[in-house]
Amino acid sequence: MKITIQNLTKKFPARNKKGKEVVAVDNMSIEIPSGKLVGLLGPSGCGKSTSLFMISGLESPTSGKIFFDDQDVTTLAAERRGVGLVFQNYALYPHMTVEGNIMFPLTNMRLPKEEAKQRALEAAQLVQIEDLMQRKPSELSGGQQQRVAIARALVKMPNVLLLDEPLSNLDARLRLQTREEIKRIQRETGITTVFVTHDQEEAMSICDIMVVMKLGVVQQVGAPQAIYDNPTNLFVANFLGTPPINIFEGEVKSGKIYIGDEAVLDTEVPDQKVYVGIRPEGFIYDENGAFSLNLDHIEVMGRDKTIVTAHGKSQKPTVRSIIDSDIYVNDQSPVVKFNLKPNKVFLFNAETEERIR
Amino acid sequence: MANPENKNFFAKIGEKCKALWESFLALFKKKEAQEVAAETQSGEVFVGKELTAKEKFLRFLKAEQGWLFVTPALILLAVFTFYPIVNAFIRAFQENYNPLSPTKYTGIGFENFVRVLKGDTGTGGATFLQCLVNTTIFTFVSVPLSTLLALLISVALNSIKALQKAYQTILFLPYLTNSLAMGAVFATFFTIVGTKNSTDTVGLVNIALGWFGIEPIDWMKGGKGFVWTIGQIRIPWTKYVVVIVYEIWSGLPFKILILFSALQSVNKQYYDAAKIDGASKSKTLWKITTPLIMPMISYLLITGIMGGMKQYTSIVGLFGEQMGIDYDMGTMVGYIYRYISNGQMGYAFAGSLLLFVIIMIFTVINLQASKKKVTY
Amino acid sequence: MEEVKQPNIVQEAPHFDVEKERKRQKVGKILKNVFVYTFLTFCAILAFLPFYWMIISSLKTEAEYRQPKLTLFPETIMWKNYEVVLTQASTSGASFAQLLVNTLLVGGVSTILGVVITILTAYALARMNFHGKNLLFTIMLGTMMIPGEMYTLTNYITATQLNWRDTYTILIVPFLVSVYYTYLLRNNFMQIPNSLYQSAKVDGLSDMGYLVKVMVPLTAPTLISITLLKFIGSWNSYIWPQLINNQRWQMITNWVTKGFNDNKGLLGPASSEPLTTLKMAAVCMVSLPLFILFIFCRKYIMRGVSKSGTKG
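Structure tokens for the assembled complex are given below, as produced in the milestone run.
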């Protein structure tokens, strides 16, 4: 099912009389194609969970519309939207068994008990918890609870599956495993799935489409790689990628990008003050390179090595550049020199922070 | 939220009783080990030098100074609680016990119990069985009803925003009353005042029933036609109605307070989840909300029943110190007090022991029943 | 898993009219609110009715009270009812003033002493180490399972033998220790981090000093609740005084069990018929002080009750 969101806005009233009302989601317009896995990504408080709850129907928007296919569902109550939602803390009913939890949505649809049992079992098989059916939620591990929550959301064959920070309560190892699981389940069922996360790596790794948000405003929508390669502004560039992008204060003078006194790269951009963003993998180690940095130390990771340096114009305390581990770097010299890969260097307007190049 | 300790409270006592025996053993077995531990706990470093008798004594005092703090309570409890409990178990088996006579009692056996249960105590008025039936019916009708009503009211209260505090306060008011005083007020609701020839007022309840075309009933008298008889047991049902209405009214505020705070502590996410799962409002109430606050509900039922089995003053408030006509509305506690005043202590002791056993039975049944439903 | 893959199991998009749905929800919400508020108002009225009835009845003339037509407000306000009630002694001679003095004295002393003992005991059980502590605590909790009537009997005999009958002492002493409040306060004390105790010890504070200067202020809300509930409990006590003492030594609630009449003819022709209005005036005088206490200490009382979870 296709989800269309038009000018969606959510304002929360001020906590006290003096306070200002909070705009959680500001004029959001996106289109989510049928059968895709979509990630809402942003730092905490960016309105991504609020957007999710509005799609589910648990929150009603202040203005704007939500369509499922061509049907306007903006005013439709959550219980009639046919969505499945996996809560951040799973919200499994503690007094019911796993089976009871999974069957609960079906009994509300007045399905015969036998059929409900059968379908609950199928859903449980899908997430591989069919052996745990008679347990209570308190007897399950976090990962198992997560699976029960997913099974409960899937069992009624929802139009849309929504997941609120599905991995945040799991430990690191389970997180990797579960995110692949989510991808697999989504592929198998073909249900349009929207999930919320603050972890860019998580979003990049499994999303078909990624929506980056900041302070209630959508910054960029697109395939993860496309956004990574082509961020629209400094925020998006900064938010994606580990280690994060390196940012320098710079200036464009007559077709050349200057960081400090050095002209590091040619460009066609007119003269102006800019922020220069360079991805860690955008550095080419070269003893005669155009860009010189003060060496701090070198981290060897096996597959590649990270040269940690510092620069007076850098916005961050250290500059990280990743190069092939085979390349020999003279760690005795106080200065290392690099050339830059043009497609890994982005220029941003110094005032608006919008992307120029 | 109402103290979460409440729900575990009875279970805790059970555990404690188990621990009692163990600590009792430990007291003898590990005495030496404990003394060493106590020395370390007292905070002084023991360097292996010989202690003088005085130092030893001081150290002992310091380790055991807790006893100093509990002494007042301990003395009072020993005299007015521990001893009386033991005493009750002994006296109940002594026949014709009289503290003032030089021989005190004439024999040992179950005579007191037999007479109490047979209603053969030589005095008129309600028998123990009558009192047991009265108390049980009052309790088992009023406690579940008021709990259910309290649940509905709390859910309603929990679903509103405006005026919530105000409603909560008003609904709590009846808690603070004196059961004698309010009993007297409730009695006026049901009383027909007047002489034989002319009726002055039929009372508030009859006036209200009159609006629906119902003839006035003399609730407080419960004359002919208003009494059911089962063997020796008489059930004047109009009077029962009066008691039950009053018990529900006076039991509600406490239950509302507890259930309301239990509801407030339920994670709102369960309601969201139920909505997503397509549960209707009533299904959410009975399948989600109620089970979630089941520990509190069962706590209320247990304490309600324990309290109900011991009721006394509310009946005195409604029907006067004679508890109706010749104690026909008597309760078990009323029975006991009557025999204290009579000076027939043996029957009173036997009655109190029976009361204890009955309460224990109900408590155990309750605990078993709620254990199944409560655990999750 | 095959079935799951089939897309046709996926629900159809719901079809409905947006505006209609909006209206339907609005109407539903209003209906729900009307229903809930009506229900709550009805319950609130029923909860409050006996109080209102008691007050207006106490201010009516007996004739007005007895007329078949209900009046929701007294036609003539009879403050005189209160005067008449106050001139009457209780069944065997104690005046209202005497009962009030008894109650305030017994209530005050037993509350203060009781709270002090509760604090000491709870502190020892929560923070101090001494042999047999657990045993003592267990036995104390165990007694809560036993109905109080079982010890009332022996206490009655003890009081008689000690020659304590018809004194204030016997009204105060047996009820000074409340196991439940001790248990409650002990738990409250246990919640205070142990590190505070250790740092106080380092600062050279004795156990007593720590109790008075740290523990008591920190648990003040609970202590206030306990104090209030204890006082209310003793205000409401009836059974024990009634059993053990003669009329001179009764508590205030004993007043309302009496039938009041107008045998001096202060309100009309003298008669020994019990008058409901007079009784209601007496009931008001016993109940209203609790109300006033509630108005000023609502927060503490409600919190105390919901925390302690005891009835009465």
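Residues 1-10 of chain C have pLDDT under 50 and may be disordered. The longest helix of chain C spans residues 18-59. Further analysis is deferred to the final report.
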